[in-house]
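Hey, quick one: can you model this chain's 3D structure?
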Amino acid sequence: MSETDSILIVEDDKDIAELLKVNLEDLSFQCDTCDRGDQAVTQIANKHYALVVLDLTLPGLNGLEVCKKVREFNPQQPILMLTAKSSELDQIIGLEAGADDYMTKPFSIPALQARVRTRIRRSKSYFQSVINAHDKGESERHVVGDLSIDSTCREVKVHEARLDLTAREFDLLKHFATHPEQVFSRSQLLDCVWGYNHDGYEHTVNSHINRLRTKLQTAVGNNSIIQTVWGVGYKLKTENCFIHH
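Sure thing. Here's the predicted structure for all 245 residues.
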C-alpha cells in the first residue's frame, strides 16, 4: 500500500468516521482518521493523501478553515467535503472555500464509494500519463493569451510566474484549452472533468468556474477567457490560443 492509496477521513463523529473507514478500506484504500480540523491540517502537510474526506463541522478548525489553510500549501490536494447542510448557499460556500466536491448527509455508502473510486482512479490515471510523458521526453503546452498551460508538469504560468490552481481547477482549464470554442453544458463538464454526473451537482461546476475566473482576473486582468454562453454553458475563446508539442 503506497501513500497514493491513502485517504484521510476528518470526522469528529466517531461512529461515522468508523463507518467511512470500514467501507473505504473495503475498496483497498488505507485510511487514516482525524477528529479535529487543526490536527488535520498538520497531517495533510506531513503526508500525501490521494483524497481528504472532510466534514464541515469540526472542533479546532471547521472544514471551511481547513480547506483554506490546505490550499495555501497544497493547492492540488483533492478534497471531498461532507456536510449535513444541504442548502444551496452552504454548498456554494464549501466549494468556494476550496473543496473539489461535496456530498450532503445523509448519503448512501455505495454512492460515496463510487465517488471516491472515480476521483482516485482519474487522478492516478492522469498522473501516470504525466509520468509516461516525462519518461518519453514528451510535453504538451497550451498558450491562451498570457497563460501557458503545461499538461506534463500540471503547471499554469503567467509570464513565468506560477498560477496556483487546485487539481480540479487545472483539469477544468486544461479541458477548455484542449477544446477551444466548444461549448460545454454543466452536465457535460461533470462527465468530462469530474467523471460523474448527478442531478443537483451543477453548483460544483458553477463554483469552480467562478473561482477559476477570479484567479485569472487577479493574474492577467482578464476573467473573460472562459465565457458564458447563456442558456447553454461555457466555452474558451480561441483568440491567442495555441498548442505546442
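One thing worth noting: The longest strand covers residues 6-10.
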